[in-house]
Amino acid sequence: MVDAPKIPRLVALVSGKGGSGKTMIAATIAYVLDYFVPCILVDADTGTAGLTYYLGIKHIENFTAGLLDKSAAEPPLQRIKGFEKGLFLGIGDHRRLERNRKEFVIAEALRDRISDLRKFESWVIVDCRGGIDDDSLGVCGAVDDIILVVEGDTTSFQATQHVVEKLADHGLAIKIKGFVLNKMIDDPTILARSATSVLRTQYLGAIPFDIDAVRAFIVGEIPELESVFGAHVASAFSRAYPGVLPPARVPRVWSPQEFRSAGLRDPRSTQGGLVAAAALLVLGTVIARAEFTFSEVTREVYRALVGAAFLVGLAGALEPTRRLIGQVFQSYLDSSLRLMQIFTRSRTRYRE
Ligand SMILES: Nc1ncnc2c1ncn2[C@@H]1O[C@H](COP(=O)(O)OP(=O)(O)O)[C@@H](O)[C@H]1O
Ligand SMILES: [Mg+2]
User: What domains are defined for the chain?
Assistant: First the structure.
């Protein structure tokens, strides 16, 4: 077994563009680590304070105490509800900071105050602002390691390349620990391979597009270790830092092929599958009854029924046809509803 790093690391999550999942991943890493090691979760997003607002829904009390408070002698760490020991350090009043940018060099303050956190001898997980500006460079200057979060689209890919170049220009590329592919709806193998060569760093893992993660985000919940999102985050973290999480506790992750199912959560597809199943049930019943009364049913009709059942089964098994069935069924439902409304309205008018 590989030994866990003896000294806790300061880790920044960085991405080429906003919305790639840094905030959710940072919170989930901290939540998962919290079972095993002391950990401080830091919001260093001077632009949107995403982590502060996310945790603000359910997990923290104080929105305004922050990393860049000039008056505080000690960093205003606060407890995170639902965590064992994990602590949170917010960004504070980021709108006021933005207005006073001229008088206060935020990038330098971020670098110094994040470096100060070393004295707590905890793991420090820092959620950065999207893109790579001076603020994020300040954070990257302070931490030990940088984890890149990349989405599967071309923009995110290009933007990440830009981040790597910018980090290299500042002598910080050496800190890049690896990259994570997030919101994958297809087999990530090819993308992972090309990103490894383009970004020149190791592939830590992929996280599927997970509708439950979106839901959790909206209501301010942090995905559990056992959830799809949590399991994939824990696995990617363990690839970066083997031995910190007990290997037995890292849940199984999806095979590359299984990622395809993440794209099939279209409700029309589910509806189509249900319609196909119902049609098969009806056809199956008819065929079974026809077998009993075989003499009365001509061979052709029997064969046609079996053929139809096969076709319905096939249509229900394939994603595009299943979705099409769902779509047709939905429009049928919609138009029937509309007809019923027109019908009832005209009847009321007639009575009046
Ligand atoms: N694997 C995922 N599957 C589905 N949605 C995701 C995933 N990761 C993040 N999201 C969603 O993407 C949005 C942006 O995430 P966030 O963590 O705020 O990104 P960032 O901090 O990089 O701007 C949120 O709605 C979040 O729920
Ligand atoms: Mg964010």
Answer: 10-262 (3.40.50.300), 266-351 (no CATH)
